[in-house]
Every structure is written in structure tokens, then in C-alpha cells.
Amino acid sequence: MHQIDTKLIKLCKKGNEVAQMQVYDCYAQAMFTIACRYLNNDEDAKDAMQEGFLKAFRNIEQYHPKATFGAWLKRIIINQCLDVLKKNQLQFDAIEVSELRITNEDDWQFDSSISKQEILNAIKQLNEKHKIVVKLYLLEGYDHEEISEILEIPIKTSRTHLRRGKLKLQELLKHKYNEARY
């Protein structure tokens, strides 16, 4: 993504529509791609992306350059997508995790014979709760504290959804690995 000029952001903060269109043009494709990761059809993704941009411009005073503008906008777009999913009745319940032991979460090694597209296709097959946590963690790079804030769930629940999603991914991709070996 492009690094937005601070002058352009200052103009956006003053309500300059030309500057807002320049920012939109700069980020629209990347934000649409992110929205498509969470929503099942292009129209929903486009609507969420556009609503996210409107929220960003309405709340641009809250943007402070400690993070890149793109990272700030991305979080708004993801939150907008999650709002759409919540409206569609996806609820994240706290999971009882007392008996579950979390193993090393950084162990996301996939066999080199498995393509990125195969991994993305396997992620699409996960149940909705696991899919969202895996996407936020693996694709967006959020940690469990951030995921718990975004989804309004306990950190343990985020860890549990990630672990279960990872196990299901390994199961889904195991046959790909075995096919490649023979």
C-alpha cells in the first residue's frame, strides 16, 4: 500500500472532498481485497469497504500518525466486515478452555508443496468462527490481544479458535501433502 502524504490527511481532516477521493483511490483496491477475505460475496465486501471509508472520513480526527494511515483504515474495514457478520447472527461465545493446552502458535509451517492458494482455499472451509480468527491472526498479523478486542471475546477464546482452526487446516491440507509425496 501507498504511504499517504500527511498534507493529504490534513486536507481530509478539513473535509476536502478531492483529498478524500485521492485517499479512496489510493486504498480502495487493497481494502476491497481485505473485505473479500471476510465476506462471502463481492457486493457485501464492496458495501462494507465503502461504509468503512465513510466511517474513516467521519472519524479522521481520531487518526494519529503513530500508525500508518493504511493500518488505521484496515482496522476500520475489518471491523466493518465483522459488524456485517455479527448482523448475520455470527456470535462468538466464550469457550470453556480449562482442559485445553495451547501449543506453540508460531508453528504455522506449511509444506512447500502446498501453494498459498491451497491454504487460502482450506481456510475458506473452516467454520466461520475459526475462519475469522485464523484470518485475523495469519493473514492480518493481529495478536490475540488485538483479536480479543476486535471480536469482543476473551483472549483464551481467541487462542482456542485459532488452535482448533489450525488443527482443522492441518487435517484439510494433509491430503495435499500426501499427494505431493507420491
Helix segment tally:
8
CATH homologous superfamily heading of the largest domain: RNA polymerase sigma factor, region 2, helix turn helix motif
Give the oligomer, counting copies of the same chain as homo and different chains as hetero.
single chain
Number of strands: 0
Q: What proportion of the residues is helical, as a percent range?
A: 55-70%
Q: What is the terminal separation in angstroms?
A: 40 Å
Q: How many separate domains make up the residues?
A: 2
- Which structural class best describes the helix and strand composition? mainly alpha
CATH class of the largest domain: Mainly Alpha
GO molecular function: DNA binding; sigma factor activity
InterPro entries: RNA_pol_sigma-70-like, RNA_pol_sigma-70_dom, RNA_pol_sigma70_r2, RNA_pol_sigma70_r4_t2, RNA_pol_sigma_r2, RNA_pol_sigma_r3/r4-like, WH-like_DNA-bd_sf
Domain RNA polymerase sigma factor 70 region 4 type: 117-169
GO biological process, one term: DNA-templated transcription initiation
